[in-house]
Amino acid sequence: MGNIFYLFHPEKKDSDRQREEEENKHYELTESSDTCWKEEETNHHHERNNASADRISDLPDDILHLILSLLPFKSVGKTSVLSRRWSHLWSSYPIIDFHEIFTGNEAVHHQTKARIINTVLARRNENYNIKVSRVGKDRNDSCLPRVEEIVLNISSLSENRSYLPQCQLKCLSLRSIESEISTCRNSKAWLEFPSSYVVGSYLRSLHNLSLNHVDFLDSDLVVDFFSSSSFPSLEKLNIERCGGMSDLKISCPNLKVLYVSIMDLNSLDISGMRLEKLKVVDPFKTCIYGSGVNIFAPNLQSFGWVSSAYTGKCSIQSFPTLKRSDISYYWDAGRHHITTRKMHNNGIALLFASSQVEELEISYNSLQILSEIYFKLGGLPFSFMKLKKLKIGTVKGKRIPGVACLLKSSPVVDRLKISFRSIEGNDKWKNTLFDDANCTEEQYWEAQAQDLSLFLSHLQVADIDVGEVIPKNAFNFAKFLLKYARGLQKMILHFPWSENCLPLDPLNDTIALLEGFPRASAEVKFSTFCH
């Protein structure tokens, strides 16, 4: 089966004279085989007599294909007239690069291109895979047969919109469709995709679908677009920066991997019994009270959520078989005009879905919400009973209550990786009781010892990233762990490699200072690591 790669670019108008000249020029590749057969047959007798001297033709196909790959593509095509042996090699040559033929000849008409492509592919050996790369768009009704993969590369630097020809989807063999953007990040180039193409179309065997900068034209059909009726065999789906939809519902029965990124949705509904990997990044650009997210994936193995937008309804079912989860969420209540209670409920719902996870990573911006939850609710209403590895993003200033909130709900964690950075200026707890009492970080950690007793009894390895300059909050936390972590076996001070990185002497001095503090575990060992 074949792999087809397309590059969509603006077409230029041609005169009839230019069109005729280009047709004659490019038919050199596709028709040279037919025009030279008589000459080849005439010399066939001489070919047999000289066969003993033709050692290269006796080489295996794979080796000869490798040798041919070093030649320009047009030269490879010309070898087909040498003999039947080389004609066979040409028909089985695995790479066809039409871009080389058309480069420098932008005036060639798209109908001429289509005829050249169809003629070459018609002579291919059906038992060989074919890769056709970087071909201009074609609006006629021709269809490249036996295509397994199509890559739609939108390369226009302008605000042009490319329209996907329906004929390119009429391939019963099609297994993968991907759209790519090869322009600047803020490009406004889009691929217009009529949803009606898929409904009752030839894509029921599709396994992989990746849509980037795609504008759906039939908004009414998009609601139930990604379902069993349209994509019953789909296993991997990527949707990024797509327009023409406000409510996205995905329920493909065989879907295993799903990515939804940088959308402008009002609601997101995901359901999949076989879904194993899910990552959602900024699906909602604004906070709308009528918006909502619903996720049901009981067999999910990996979950990622990155969003700064609030949803009115957040219903995410627990993932009982989850192995890894990466959560980054935060909201500016003042900017979005939402209540603190609803903001907390969203955060709790996201974390509860990962409550059965084995490895969890929380970003630094999530600590703000967790700090507020800890102050106002006393912690999360559940525990991570399977969590063994916990990674916490950069801790700055008085966000350590968010750290305490996580540690209190992680009673069986045995490996902790946490980053600290110093912060300039007057940083307050944002809690009247602690601010009025001028509570220090060291005093705060001392007050948490009893609530964190289960965590402290199971922790074995503490990996602390201290940055280029050891911040005081990192030192206070390390001192707290040494004093109360009874099962601690190893403490690693992590620092980045740079010209301004910490010299060895201050690190050794810091370790020597920590070694002098009281330790709950006599087995703890210290080390440094530069990354």
TrEMBL record:
Domain F-box positions: 53-101
SUPFAM superfamilies with a match to the protein in the record: F-box domain, L domain-like
Listed Basic and acidic residues bias regions: 9-29
Short name of one Pfam family: F-box
Ranges for region Disordered: 9-53
Residues spanning the signal sequence: none
PANTHER family (UniProt xref): F-BOX DOMAIN-CONTAINING PROTEIN (PTHR34223:SF93), OS11G0201299 PROTEIN (PTHR34223)
Name of the protein in its database record: F-box domain-containing protein
Species this protein is from: Rubus argutus (Southern blackberry)
Taxonomic lineage: Eukaryota, Viridiplantae, Streptophyta, Embryophyta, Tracheophyta
